[in-house]
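Progress report, Aim 2. The chain analyzed during this reporting quarter is listed below.
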Amino acid sequence: MADIAHECSMSPANVYRFFSSKQAMNDAVADRLFAEVIALATEASVTPRTPAERLRATLAAIEKRHADRFLNEKHLHELVVISVRENWLVSRSFTERIEAIVADIVSEGIARHQFQGGDSIILGRCLLVTTAVFCDPRLIATPGGFRRPNLEQIMDFAIGALRGDSIAHRTGDQLHASRKPVCAGSTSPVR
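Predicted structure tokens for the chain:
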């Protein structure tokens, strides 16, 4: 707290007027970082496209922000990872918000008969688990194997499942079609 107070040109006592503890400060920073991701996901989720396109855009926005933070703001990314790993209230709230955004899109897809019926919350959670290696901040840094599908390929698979497509035979050859090198956790080619 003394270092933070010094950087802010104020006394430690003054910092405690705004934050009751170091944990309260960490929570406030993590909440702000999660709010950035939620804003991007929300923006992508409300675009006037099909539910499948909105799901793709939403999950790509989440993946991109986490990957950008991992590459360019390591300390902030680590704070987000710690908050998820330690199950802070702000990370649980973030997860619930993302689940709600995805469930709303899935629900619309079901209502429009573009996805097969089911519990949109459970289907949304299944989609998030399927894409976790790209959207969970703890896994963004996981080195991608040569044969790991990218987010677009995983979304093809997941949306096919939501539609009830017989996708197993269709995606087998496509799963490894993209062999461009990618940054760990990113679908973007290495620059």
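The radius of gyration is 19 Å. Residues 160 and 166 are 7 Å apart (CA to CA). These observations will guide the mutagenesis work planned for the next reporting period.
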